[in-house]
Structures are given as structure tokens and as C-alpha cells.
């Protein structure tokens, strides 16, 4: 569940405010870096929220931007302090996609397209274990269990009775046909998917093979939106060694339009439930044989 102080979101908000102050001053990131004798990349990372911001950084930047209102400076200093606190995920140690978890924890809605697997928030424990073991064959049991535990903890956003995450998932038929683990495991996973799709805040649509080429052929992505209108939406693209976060309005708009096309080409909600249930029966029939 979302905490009162989310360090990832605090860093984003603080970075956006620092960028606004710089632009009001009419300075480039390069000019600010020269004044503070730091690299331009540091200023960029501070502004995009990818780097922890110290109170000293805030003080120095406010000095460069000639911010005279002490209330503004004090507010930014407090945001810097909050941004250095640890979110719940830090208790699990080093998590490669911790930035994404921080964003997801505070998001109001999530739209995801998955071409290969069932989305993480909709996975059963057994499916998650088999999937992670197969995807990371060189990982030890401890690391796999940690990743599974983090995934299950993330799912609390779906089960939150007061402030559930509004989730819309478009899933390619390949994810349902790809047998992760045994046939019984897959049947249970698909039945779980149908059950979750009946929740008012969870919408699932399947994109069948017969649709042919579609806007999602380039791969998985997710769009996160936040309750505070000052927080810009984020497009998240997962990579093997690094992830990509797109926040420019034009980029978010393009991916949003692409998602609307995916939704339009996918089976509707009721057709999707029937389709998934039919494939689940195929796994049952296979067991009987």
C-alpha cells in the first residue's frame, strides 16, 4: 500500500520544482553545473528524480537561482529530507527496478501491455516462482525468493480495499499459451486471472493471435498515472540490464494512443473471460489425457 512518504515520488516532485526554478531563471543545466563545479549529468539526474537529492544540493541550487522566499527554500529542503527516506522495498535489499516500484506504489492507475507473460501484479506465487526461475537461470534460491516476495508485496496495491490501484491489462494470447511450470500451475494461474478480472478496478483484455500485426509488436510497456496532477505520467519500458522511463508529454501521448489501439483490437472484457476460461480447460483436458 502507498506510504505517506514515498521517496521516489518526492524526488520526482522536487526535481520538477528545481527544473521550474532553473527555467524561471533562464539558465541551462550546463550553466548551473559550471556555477556549482559539478557535472551537467548530475543536474539532469537531480531534475529527473533518478538521484537522491541532499539538503546541501537544494541549498546550493536555491542560491544559484536566487530564491529569496525562505518558505520555498524550507519546503524544498523538507522534500529533500523526505526523498532520502527508505521505501518498504528497501527492506528486501538491492532491487534492480526499485525506481519503478516506488512509482507503482504511489500510482493511481496502471495500464500495461504484456506480450509474453501474465503481468506481475496478476500472478500467483507458483507462477511467479516458475517464471523468475526460468528467466534468471543463474540466480540462487535466495534471490529468486526475494524477487517473488517483492512481487507479492506489490500485489497489495490490487488488494487495497480503500485505495486500490486501477489496473488495465492488455495481454497477448502468447502469454496464456506459454506454459510456465506445469499444466496444473497454468490452469490455476488462468483461473486466478479470470477471478481478478471480475474486480471493479481490474480490467483484463486478451489480444488473440488472429488479430495479426498490432501496435504492441515492439514489446512490453506500462503507463503509470498519479493522483497528484503535478506528477507527470510515466511510460515504463523494462530492459535486461537497464530500464527506460519516458516522462515528456509527447512520448506519453504517443504510447497512450498506441494503448487505445491495443484496447480497441483486443477482445472485450466478457469475451476475454470466456477466452481465458477456454484455455484453462485445455490445460485441464491435457491433465486428464
Automatic annotation (TrEMBL):
Residue ranges occupied by any HTH cro/C1-type domain in the UniProt entry: 18-73
Protein name: Helix-turn-helix transcriptional regulator
Pfam family of the protein (one): DUF5753
Entry superkingdom: Bacteria
InterPro entries: Cro/C1-type_HTH, DUF5753, Lambda_DNA-bd_dom_sf
Amino acid at each position: 500500500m502507498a506510504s505517506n512518504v514515498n521517496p521516489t515520488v518526492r524526488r520526482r516532485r522536487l526535481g520538477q520544482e528545481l527544473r521550474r526554478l532553473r527555467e524561471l531563471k533562464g539558465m541551462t543545466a550546463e550553466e548551473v553545473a559550471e556555477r556549482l563545479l559539478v557535472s551537467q549529468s548530475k543536474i539532469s539526474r537531480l531534475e529527473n528524480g533518478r538521484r537522491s537529492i541532499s539538503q546541501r544540493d537544494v541549498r546550493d541550487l536555491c542560491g544559484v537561482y536566487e530564491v529569496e522566499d525562505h518558505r520555498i527554500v524550507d519546503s524544498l529542503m523538507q522534500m529533500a529530507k523526505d526523498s532520502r527516506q527508505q521505501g518498504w522495498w528497501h527492506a528486501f535489499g538491492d532491487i534492480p527496478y526499485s525506481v519503478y516500484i516506488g512509482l507503482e506504489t504511489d500510482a493511481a492507475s496502471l495500464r500495461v501491455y504484456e506480450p509474453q507473460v501474465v503481468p506481475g501484479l496478476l500472478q500467483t506465487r507458483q507462477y511467479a516462482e516458475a517464471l523468475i526461475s526460468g528467466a534468471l537461470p543463474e540466480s540462487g534460491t535466495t534471490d529468486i525468493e526475494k524477487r517473488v516476495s517483492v512481487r507479492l508485496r506489490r500485489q497489495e496495491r490490487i488488494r487495497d480495499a480503500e485505495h486500490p490501484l486501477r489496473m488495465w491489462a492488455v495481454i497477448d494470447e502468447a502469454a496464456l499459451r506459454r506454459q510456465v511450470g506445469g499444466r496444473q500451475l497454468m490452469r490455476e494461474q488462468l483461473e486466478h486471472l479470470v477471478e481478478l478480472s471480475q474486480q471493479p478496478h481490474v480490467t483484463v483484455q486478451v489480444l488473440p493471435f488472429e488479430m495479426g500485426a498490432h501496435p504492441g509488436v515492439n514489446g512490453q510497456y506500462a503507463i503509470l498515472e498519479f493522483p497528484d496532477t503535478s506528477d507527470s505520467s510515466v511510460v515504463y519500458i523494462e530492459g535486461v540490464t537497464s530500464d527506460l522511463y519516458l516522462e515528456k508529454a509527447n512520448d506519453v501521448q504517443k504510447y497512450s494512443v498506441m494503448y487505445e489501439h491495443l484496447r480497441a483490437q483486443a477482445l472485450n472484457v466478457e469475451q476475454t473471460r470466456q477466452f481465458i476460461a477456454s484455455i484453462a480447460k485445455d490445460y485441464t483436458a491435457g491433465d486428464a489425457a
